[in-house]
Amino acid sequence: MSPRRPSSPPTAAPASARAADAPGLPPGLTAGRNGSAGRPGSPGRPKPPRHLADLGLPERRAAVAELGERPFRADQLSRQYFTRLADDPGEMTDLPQSSRQELADALLPRLLTAERELACDDGTTRKTLWRTFDGAYIESVLMRYPGRVTMCVSSQAGCGMACPFCATGQAGLTRNLSTAEIVEQVVAGARALARGQVPGGPGRVSNVVFMGMGEPLANYRSVVQALRRLTEPAPAGLGISARGVTVSTVGLVPAIGRLAAEGLPVTLAVSLHAPDDEARDELVPVNRRWKVAEVLDAAWRYADVTGRRVSIEYALIRDVNDQAWRADLLGGLLAGHLAHVNLIPLNPTPGSRWTASRPAAQDEFVAGLEAHGVPVTVRDTRGREIDGACGQLAASSGGPTPLDPPHALRAPRGYIADTPAARRAQGPDSLDR
Ligand code: SAH
Q: Can you tell me the mean pLDDT for 223-249?
């Protein structure tokens, strides 16, 4: 059975983003490739302020030298940002008092302002709604578990991929985030942890998942630079293990190939959601450009090059993509490959005609994959309940306000079952390991 169409067609991207349409993509899809109008700093769109996280260490040294400072001050400033997680120039006591403010103004401008914080799971899950310098809104989520902390980050304000079951996909792309705007989401989480603001005592970020707003591979250059900043050791970056980082994509085939060649052994997650082109053309419209077989070929090449097991994301949608024959088809496609499947019970967006699968259908789907020897995990619905509870809490705290943009109360999808209960249920195959 082919999936039903959403009650309303995906909203086209705003005019500013439509200009970023890439050749080869269906109308309305905005790839925001390098050089496109989706980039920060494109003509007509002011650039986010330059930040040291946008720059490699040599460029930071050059920038510091331009201010008349000794180049090693760039290393000191970088350690303040990435290691000490300082955000007040007054704390940067290894820098001369006379130049602290000037250096911070030049290389550590404020990029994100927290508009709203939502906590659940006794404070160990925290969503932050951020406002950017130009008034766009993005979200990040910190999730703490025993021995591990995952940050779920946004790579774009909005998204141009128009997946009909995804809240972000309905509103279109506003713009790409800069490298530093991506990195700053992780640094902000690291800072809150280091300062003991998250229950469980001082801690560190061990995992990062690109599963917030946006399509990371449509903002390729900024995302790859962010991956470098996140994984390079101090003073260049934050020093998080690449094995703890997951990039989730709708399946932009050329960009998957490029990513494989970057020498960054991050985990790739592919949002497949259907094993057949008929259903996937509807659920993930970019499939009209790159078909299931091409996406999976790119995934297997990625696994070959990096040695990393690919995560196949599959949102189970009642009577749309959850039939036993689709499980069998998917199992056949994945069997023998370095992959595991993450089944995500659909988290219906407001007004959606679609809902999560019945438990029996879900069990049958799991069994259908296991029959092919394909490793599969189901994300626990407890996370979804918490997600809903969080959103409800915010909604009841005053309703829509100017601080309530379309995405404000929506949790980034994909983090939804990354809860302690889900983690226990999922065992060693969890998404971000
Ligand atoms: N653009 C990237 C990141 C998106 S968010 C991508 O598509 O992979 C991470 C995951 O959450 C994706 O697999 C996405 O399809 C899924 N998702 C989005 N909305 C959802 C919803 N309402 N219910 C369940 N999963 C959803």
A: 98
Q: What number does the ligand 1 atom closest to the CA of 214 have?
A: 1
Q: What is the pLDDT of residue 193?
A: 97
State the closest ligand 1 atom to the C-alpha of 163, by its place in the atom list counted from 1: 15
Average pLDDT, stretch 389-409?
Answer: 30
Is the CB of residue 409 less than 8 Å from the CB of residue 391?
A: yes
Residues near 57 by beta carbon (within 8 Å), at least 6 away in sequence:
74, 75, 78, 235, 236
List, by residue number, the catalytic residues: 139, 390
Confidence category of residue 87, pLDDT binned at 50, 70, 90:
very high
Q: What is the mean pLDDT of residues 159-173?
A: 92
Where exactly are the structural domains of the chain?
A: 52-107, 111-400
d(CA 411, CA 160): 18
Q: Which residue has a Cα nearest atom 4 of ligand 1?
A: 211
Q: Tell me which architecture the domain covering 111-400 has in CATH.
A: Alpha-Beta Barrel (3.20)
3-state secondary structure of 366: helix
The answer to whether the beta carbons of residues 194 and 154 sit under 8 Å apart is no
Q: What share of the chain is helix, strand, coil (3-state, %, to 5)?
A: 40, 15, 45
Pocket of ligand 1 (CB under 6 A): 161, 163, 165-166, 211, 215, 248-250, 271, 313, 315, 344, 346-347, 349, 413-414
E strands within 272-400? 310-316, 339-345, 376-378
Protein residue with its CA nearest to atom 5 in ligand 1 = 211
Domains 52-107 and 111-400 alike in fold: no
Q: Which fold has domain 52-107?
A: DNA polymerase; domain 1 (1.10.150)
